[in-house]
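User: Can you predict the 3D structure for this chain?
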Amino acid sequence: MEVSKGYLRNYLLPRKLAAPATKALLEDAQRVAAAHSRQRAEAIAQAREQADALTNTVLTIAHQTGEDGRLFGSVTNQDIAEAIQEARGIEVDRRNVRLADPIRATGTYVVDVELAEGVIANVKTMVVAER
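Assistant: Here is the predicted structure, written as C-alpha cells:
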C-alpha cells in the first residue's frame, strides 16, 4: 500500500505503524507468512485427528431428573465441553460446542463440536438420570 510521504514521515513512522518496504523487510514478511501457514496446516491436521477421536466417542452425562425424564436444569454447551475434557483430554471452548438449545430431557443427542476452522466433529452424547 502506498501513502503520501508526509503521512508516512509525520504519522506512521513516529508511531511505528509502518516501515519502508525494503528488500530485507519484504523477505522477513514472506518468511513470517510461510511460518503462519505451516502452523495453520499443522493445527488443522491435529484438529482432524481429534475430530476422528471425538466422532468415535460416546459421552455420558448424568443429571438429576424428575419422574417423567425431564432434567432439573439443563445440560449446556459448557457441560459438554467439560465432558469432552474428562473423556478424551481435548480442551474445547464452550463457544465451539454447537447446541441450538440446552438439553432438557434424558436421551441420546448428536452434538456438533468445531475444533478448528472447517473441522467439525459429531459427538454422540447420552444424557442419563443421576443415581
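The domain at 46-129 is CATH 3.10.430.100 (Ribosomal Protein L9; domain 2). The radius of gyration is 24 Å.
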